[in-house]
What we know:
Chain A is of the alpha/beta class and 163 residues long.
Amino acid sequence: xxxxxxxxxxxxxxxxxxxxxxxxxxxxxxxxxxxxxxxxxxxxxxxxxxxxxxxxxxxxxxxxxxxxxxxxxxxxxxxxxxxxxxxxxxxxxxxxxxxxxxxxxxxxxxxxxxxxxxxxxxxxxxxxxxxxxxxxxxxxxxxxxxxxxxxxxxxxxxxxxxx
Amino acid sequence: xxxxxxxxxxxxxxxxxxxxxxxxxxxxxxxxxxxxxxxxxxxxxxxxxxxxxxxxxxxxxxxxxxxxxxxxxxxxxxxxxxxxxxxxxxxxxxxxxxxxxxxxxxxxxxxxxxxxxxxxxxxxxxxxxxxxxxxxxxxxxxxxxxxxxxxxxxxxxxx
Lengths: 163, 159
C-alpha cells in the first residue's frame, strides 16, 4: 500500500511538472556551470569533500551579509575538506561581477539557472544552503536567514566524520 | 589649532563619503516595513479570494526575480521585473500607466525575508506615485516557496 501511495505521489509530481523536494538523505543533483572566472564548476569534482552550496543573489541583503562568513569558513576549513560554492540566481552575470569586485570572496561563484534550481527542488527564496557530505548526499537544506553558528557547527560535524 | 580642526573636518568628510560609496546597492532600498498595514493581504486570504469564482480578479504582478517566477508563481500573475532596479521599475510603470487609477492591483515578491526584501516597497511606492488607490501587497514573511508553494496554494510555472 505504501508503494502505491509513493508511486501515486511520484506520478502526481511528474504530471504537474513539480520538482521533487530535495532534502536530507537525497543524493545531491549533479551540475556543471561556469564560474565568474570562466572555470567550470562540477559538483562531481568535489566528491570526497564536504560541500556547502549557497544559492544567493547580488540584490539579496541577507545573502550578501553572509558572504564574509562563508569566505572565512572556506579559509579556515578548506584544509579539512570544505568547499563552499556560490550559485547566484541573478538574471545576469554583470551585477554579480560588480558585487564580487567590491566584496571579493574566497570561493568560486557561478550563475545558476532555472533548470539547476528545479533539480534542487526549486529555489524560491534566498538565501538557501545545501550541506552535502563527502559521499555526495545532502545532509541538510537551510532556507532563509539561518543561524550561521548552527550551520558552522553542522559543517564542523561533517568534517569530523570518518572518510 | 585651526589647521588641526580643518584636518579633522576633511578627514571626517572623506570618511563619510567613503562609507556612503562603500554601501552596497541593496542597503539603499526602502524597507518593506514602510508599507502600511492596511495595504497588506495575507497569503491564505489572497489564495481564498482567487478560489472564489465570483470575486472580480485584480491585476496580479510579481516584482521579484525572474528565475523564481519561472519556477513558480501565482496563476494569472505577470512578471514585471525586480522593482529594486531601474529597469524593473520602468517595466512596472509601463505595464500599468494606461490603466484607470481605480484598477485593483496586487503585487508580490517573496524573493527573500520580508524585512529585507529590496523590491516590494519600491514597487508599492511607484504605484502610489502613479496614483493607484487600490494596491494590495501580499505579505510574504519568509519567501514565496515557504509562504505560498509549501502551503499548497495554487501555483503555475514557466516564464
